[in-house]
Specification:
The protein has one domain: NAD(P)-binding Rossmann-like Domain (Rossmann fold). It has helices spanning about 20-30, 40-55, 70-80, 105-135, 155-175, 200-215, 220-230, and strands at about 10-15, 35-40, 55-60, 85-90, 135-140, 180-185, 240. Strands 3-2-1-4-5-6-7 form a seven-stranded parallel β-sheet, with helices on both faces. The model has no long low-confidence stretch (mean pLDDT about 95). Helices cover about 45% and strands about 15% of the residues. Helix 1 (about 20-30) packs across helix 7. By secondary structure, the chain is α/β, with parallel strands linked by helices. The longest helix has 29 residues, at about 105-135.
Amino acid sequence: MSNNIAGKVIVITGASSGLGEAAARHLSTQGATVVLGARRADRIQALADELVSRGGKALAIMTDVTNRDQVKQLVDTAVQTFGRIDVLINNAGLMPHSPLERLKTDEWDRMIDVNIKGVLYGIAAALPHMKQQMAGHIINVSSVAGHKVTPAGAVYAATKHAVRALSEGLRQEVKPYNIRTTIISPGAVATELPDSITEPDVSARIHQFYAAVAIPADSFARVVGFAISQPDEVDINEILFRPTRQEL
């Protein structure tokens, strides 16, 4: 294969379902070695076993992205096992929407820990290896909410705006090391993400919206594949995509 994906070692957080699972499947079919991180160890192990049974290379490592040591272990194990890390996909995320006046402070803290700190911990784990290699690609998953703010989505949008800001700073800083950076901002994609909403009225509204317009998770996987597959001198810095029917 000459798709610039085959043979690459790709670490994916949040790989137990949704966007991460779809990306793992797609990239494995393109010849990549995938290292799967998520809290649900049984889910990622089953996925790894399936990909290996189909002739792919895959490794599952239980990882909570809010724990810096576990994220470091995920990346370090990938490098120790396969010799390098070519791509990190910081995908793990939560979306428990609620109006600010309802003061769901525990959920705010959790979103900040997963959506912002989890990305930072991924960067901290991968960057030293990529600098030493003088090559690599860091893909951070933002959202349409990283471009637009909606009622009940203020904190989630703030975390996704933060991902874009961090990614742009990273892009500028890693030029001397030949490292590529990509922000991917999906619109409504059919995943478990809305299931993290605990407010019944907000949950009902978001689920209704997703049922009407959401597109399959393999749409995200193809976008990831596009960014990675470009020649090494081409740096796709940001992709924003939506369902054709999505207005927001």
